[in-house]
Fold these 2 entries.
Entry 1:
Amino acid sequence: MRTMVNLANLLRDKGDYKTAEPLFRKALVLRRKTLPAGHLDLGYSLVNLGILLIDTDRPGEAEPLLREGRRIFQKALPQDHFLIANAASVLGACMAAMHRYEDAEPLLTNGYALLKNKRGEKDKLTLRACHRIVDLYREWGKLEKAAAYQALLKD
Amino acid sequence: MAIGAVIMALILGFGISTKLQSDRIARERDKAEEVAAFLMNLFEVSDPGEAKGNAITAREILDRGAENIREDLKDQPEVQATLMHIMGKVYTSLGLYASAAPLLEASLKTRQQTLGGEHAEVAESLNSLAELLREQGDYEQAEPLYRKALAIRLKRFGDEHPDLAANLNDLGLLLYEKGDYAAAESLLSKSVAMHRKLPNKQSKLLAVSLNNLALVMDDKGDYPAAEMLYRESMEMSRKQLGSNDPLVASNMNNLAALLHAKGNYSAAEPLYRETLALRRKLFGEQHPDVATCMNNLAALLYDKNDYAGAESLYVEALNMRRKLLGEEHPR
């Protein structure tokens, strides 16, 4: 199942949403069926399908999945774990996509700060979280703040 | 009179035990003969007259044994159960779960019938059957079997025994796979502590418990603790078992995954590749552990932005997992 979700992630990142989405959905159904409620792998499935739904302009559909995934991580892991930070950042992006910028900002900045702290500035997840903040401030029209985070993305 | 009676009883007792002994000797002799016949039949396949020029593998001998054991040793249920248990465990390690299940189930049933429900060998069979179910991802059915084995062992061995420590380890691993980290950590820590205290240290089993405790710390994000445990486990298993061993391969895979999670790709990649080569050598091309390692290496390539390399490995691993474990395996 992990392999299926990993492959779906890769296909999503390549922009092949049509192949990725059914794989995510199948894995989610099977995980709900075969794993105890609250298993981390269920959290992965929810957050990763959520990212695809944001990418394909369905943030409303993503929100409940992302909240459920984040709750699973919060319950199973120490509170400073990077998976919780990552889930917060993705949920922030979801809020931003629905133009709820004020809800989005603390989720995105806190998630980013924790990721940077736990995984380092150049980590893939940290960089993605930083991108999301740039996107937020650009959408929101706060261009100076966007530029400050954009600067962090350069080497 | 009182003294006399005591002597009487003793003489009587002696007589009975002699009779029992001679019965036992006769039974042991019959048992030995039947086992010898079974083994002769088993190994005859490698006789050139039988093999007709074909090289016979250990696997073929195992398969032949599994086929014949029900009939050939039906008059020796205890020996039959022991051999079925060993064969079932070997099939489990080979990832051949469909062949393992009937052997382990029959072994358990026979032992329960001949030895009673609370015997140490019944606990052993329960544990091995639970292991098979866990490997297949059937946590719901596996857990009560582990717990039953644990209860028997606690009652029989008290609270310090290698089998008990091993049982704690196995149940701890199941809880880890189920995602119950707090309970898993507690049982695995207990298993490690118990192994460390045992007189002959049981190094292989200690190494296994250390490895499994490290998995929990790893998932919890405590990388320094996890790395220390993986390295201690690996050093111990290498020393005990040499470099060509499934446990060493697991240590390597897990350490690579930890380095990978920490972002140290250049250290993780060669270690994954080494693990993959070792597992192919140990298990053949098709095995759940080979698929796991391919998945991990693919994830690393993905993180390095080598999408093409990652995709083909994922697809290969996914097909292998589907074939070996079915669609519904949770991991």
Entry 2:
Amino acid sequence: MLKFEGASRRYGDVIAVGSVDLEIAKGSFVALVGASGSGKSTLLKMVNTLEVPSAGKVLFAGDDVAAQPPAALRRRIGYVFQGIGLFPHLRVGENIAIGPRLAGETLSAERITELLELVELEGDMAGRMPDELSGGQRQRVGVARALAIEPELLLMDEPFGALDPITRDALGETVRELHERLGLTTIMVTHDMAEALLLADRVLVMEAGAIVADETPHALLAGKGGDTAQGLVAVPRQQAEKLAAMEASGPT
Amino acid sequence: MSEFLDILFGLGDKLTAHIVLAASAIGLGIAVALPLAVWASRSRNVARVALGFASLVQTIPALALLALFFPILLSLRAVFGEGLPTLGFLPALLALALYALLPILRNAVTAQANLDPGVLEAADGVGMTSWQKLRLVEAPLSAPFIMAGIRTASVWTIGAATLSTTIGQPSLGDPIFAGLQTQNWALVLAGCFASAALALIADNLLGLIERGLARRSKVMWGGGLIAVAAGIIAALSVQFGGEEEDTIIIASKQFSEQYILAQLIGSRLEAAGYAVEYRDGLGSAVVHNAVASSAIDISVDYTGTIWTNNLKRTDNPGRKTMYQTIKEWEAEENGVLVLGRLGFENAYAFAMREDRAAELGLTSLEDLVRVAPQLTVGGDPEFFERPEWIAVRDAYGMRFGQTRNFSPTFMYNALTSGEADVISAYTSDGRIAADRLVVLEDPREALPSYDAMLMISPRRANDAALIAVLEPLIGAISVDAMREANFAVDRQEDKLSPKEAADQLADNIGL
């Protein structure tokens, strides 16, 4: 489905991503985890050419992404990111319909309602402006917009980063469920290892532009993947242990 | 008050000309600024150069910018041919459009720079081409800010368009300039009021469009747009409704005598069946070039002015030789026909209040040298740059304590109010007698003569019928008759309009 061949991205002397080789199978849910500046967002953006590799290439369904017209390529790939990026001057329905509109198609009102319901929003929300919605609702619209083009591949760049924990949890569940139901291939960038472990079926850990671990959630929890990966796994684990201990000891 | 209202309601054609000019200039400004802003948003260097240039233009006084387009267009005739207009609508349009550029450009560039990067990334992410991104995202999100820039530009342009009077484009500046020169405050007020009202209306309508765009209310911005378009279309239809062919265009500079003489000439031509148009209040340098390039047909100019400004001569060969030399030079150099001298001189002279001169015991410039270091001299804005002043200064060794510039009209007020002790007066000025001023003698003949001459453009130089109508004016106007007519316009009470004064002058000299 997706293949990175020696893909690198440099900014002058700074290496954001250094020669990554990677293959992602159709239907997988991959989480890219790492600290800020580890290169995970840059790697993700190489797929829809928002970042262009300085060396190497990225193949999508067998074709070099750099060789295709960017606009046409991006209309086949759903993209959701932290800034959400709803167009503030367009209604919710118009935002969802933008992808098909760019390709010259009109999305029916029924399909918009269906997409809104898919991300667990009311169908009558289509007529509202983005600034009338809560952060969680907006990000759900962002997901609906990405799904409107019936993408083969869904890219998510810290999609839930700005949301409160409850909303975040609920939206994570929704996305995982949609991934199963629609048979998507999903790549999600996150700095939250717990989120990666709970949602993905393959976790890639990045550090200084390189992939330092490539494991299943179970393998990571079993202690595999090396020091960096284990350092990231340790945080939610210790939190869970402390919480369990507090629960056991009762009120002090 | 009723005079003010009469004038105001008589401004219809000036108003429509003003609207057409301002709207065209803003339109041209928008047409240039918006593509430039898009380009600037894609290239930092373009942004720097474009904004730098627009800011630089802004530092040039509007009046100078308007005047600058005359030589520019004149030199462009080499490329576009003799038909290229050098005065009137075209230079006014170009100068004002250049002026309108900055606010529109700056707002558009700022709006683009301040667009939410997340939204722009989303536009790329959903697969917009750069044209779709511009049309669907950047333009609608920038629109309210761009509209604010257009609004600022419109208010400026409507105000600055009054200055286009000085380069021969009719506008609401006509009554303002004419009123300032003849101290007819009702005229000035009416012109200012009309242009301010126009600016306010435009500002409000464009404000409506701006708010409509910001609130995404089609009714609001659509309504505002329709109202603006309706105003412009109405002005256009009035402006270009009636076409007149073969109109004689008469110029006047910015003082009463010129207004009166233009009217005097115009009345004669109208009586002889010609269609006449006036270009009042032109800059002094502009008038000669305009006649030479046939942008206007008739003007009255002065020997001393042409001698120094155009022949670049500093010597003083005497009144008759100077006139003959100029007549030959004009025919040879420019094809301009100097039809003849009107009969009076409007020369520079130094004038003082009678009582003050008596008190100091002054009758001539030689006496003045002695006390000059204690005195303040007032002159029109160009006087202290002129060779006349330099000639006097050098011939007599004249050094004044203080030098001040006044517009010709205010110069006399300055003398009566004591803000100046001596002024550079004009010999045909009615206020010399009226204000009881004495003209100081010039025993060393440092000041050259200023015979008023009738100038005909090359286009009309061989028009025998036209010349026959104008011929009786030659040698017909004595300095006393001219002084009287000038004073009738310049005095505070019972003042006449230039047209009335011209009629009275015609009666006086038996024409």
